[in-house]
């Protein structure tokens, strides 16, 4: 179990962003494309585990002062540094050549993602706003990489939505860090010194509105309507709206936005909106 948490296997679903371009392009049911993309998801999962291990190693002393992060394998001493390094080397030797073999641009995106996150761990995460921008870029890189791997065009609206949504989630996580500090449960993050709850709440409110508008613009754009042969995609915006409002409620009312992935895996309301969104979208473009 300690290796499960070291590798952050429970965070691997984030790498499903690789599937997004193919899903929106209506080609995800093509068997050859699906097999190729699954391999891409595995490559990103291995690289993301390397990133998590590097970050945990760098932060292990600070994590020991955190109410929940103190239980991480490296911070708690359940996994040795030698073992962690062994995982990093093994995964890099598997993922990078595999990714380059699948598609040169996809492989380069893996390397670029790795480099950005290494620099993030080395100190860029201490710069306010830049820290959330870099976290958001990871989801955008996954999406673009998925488009290159599936050889499908990516709408500019899709790029905007993915980036804004990931920035929204990263900002919500910063809010949770700030609340933990103010209640004396965790030390202050270096970047958090430049944030206030009012500032973060304003950003989240603005982002939620822009994301919804961007999504609606995407669903009614001529390019998407003509390519997918349906003018009714805007109906799926209902579930996007409901999901975002629920996440805002969790963030601002319940004050528990520290782990967006945990929310997606445990909150029934959000799970239902996601399932209905996928089902509605699938019926409109695949049936």
Task: Report what the structure shows.
- This protein is an all-alpha fold.
- Helices cover 73% and strands 0% of the residues.
- The protein is built from 13 helices and no strands.
- It is globular and about 55 Å long.
- It starts with a helix and ends with a helix.
Short synopsis of the structure:
With 287 residues, the chain is mainly α. 73% of the residues lie in helices and 0% in strands.
Largest sheet data? none
Shape: globular
Count up the helices.
13
How big is the Rg?
19 Å
Mean pLDDT figure: 88
Low-confidence stretches: none
Helix content: over 70%
Instruction: Note the beta-strand portion.
Output: under 5%
Question: Can you write the helix and strand succession as a string?
Answer: HHHHHHHHHHHHH
Task: Kindly report how far apart the N and C termini lie.
Answer: 41 Å
Strand element count: 0
Class derived from helix and strand content = mainly alpha
Keywords:
single chain, 287 residues, mainly alpha, 13 helices, 73% helix
Helix-strand layout with pairing:
Blueprint: H1 2-6, H2 20-25, H3 31-63, H4 73-76, H5 81-102, H6 104-122, H7 130-150, H8 156-182, H9 197-220, H10 222-228, H11 237-252, H12 260-266, H13 268-286
């Amino acid at each position: 179990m300690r290796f499960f948490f070291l590798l952050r296997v429970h965070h691997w679903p984030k790498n499903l962003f690789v599937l997004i371009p193919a899903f929106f392009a209506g080609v995800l049911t093509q068997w050859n494309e699906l097999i190729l993309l699954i391999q891409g998801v595995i490559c990103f999962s291995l690289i993301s585990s390397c990133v998590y291990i590097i970050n945990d190693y760098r932060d292990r002393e600070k994590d020991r002062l955190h109410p929940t992060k103190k239980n991480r394998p490296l911070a708690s001493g359940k996994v040795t540094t030698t073992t962690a390094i062994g995982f990093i080397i093994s995964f890099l030797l598997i993922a990078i050549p595999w990714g380059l073999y699948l598609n040169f641009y996809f492989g380069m995106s893996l390397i670029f993602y790795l480099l950005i996150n290494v620099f993030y761990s080395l100190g860029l995460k201490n710069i306010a706003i830049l820290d959330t921008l870099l976290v958001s870029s990871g989801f955008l890189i996954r999406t673009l990489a998925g488009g290159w791997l599936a050889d499908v065009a990516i709408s500019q609206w899709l790029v905007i939505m993915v980036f804004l949504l990931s920035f929204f989630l990263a900002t919500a996580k910063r809010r949770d860090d700030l609340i933990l500090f103010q209640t004396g449960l965790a030390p202050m993050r270096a970047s958090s010194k430049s944030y206030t709850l009012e500032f973060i709440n304003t950003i989240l409110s603005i982002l939620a509105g822009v994301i919804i508008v961007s999504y609606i613009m995407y669903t009614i754009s001529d390019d998407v309507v003509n390519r997918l042969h349906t003018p009714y995609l805007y109906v799926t915006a209902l579930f996007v709206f409901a999901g975002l409002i629920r996440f805002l409620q969790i963030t601002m009312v319940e004050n528990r936005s520290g782990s967006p992935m945990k929310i997606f895996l445990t909150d029934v309301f959000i799970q239902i909106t996601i399932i209905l969104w996928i089902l509605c979208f699938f019926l409109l473009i695949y049936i």
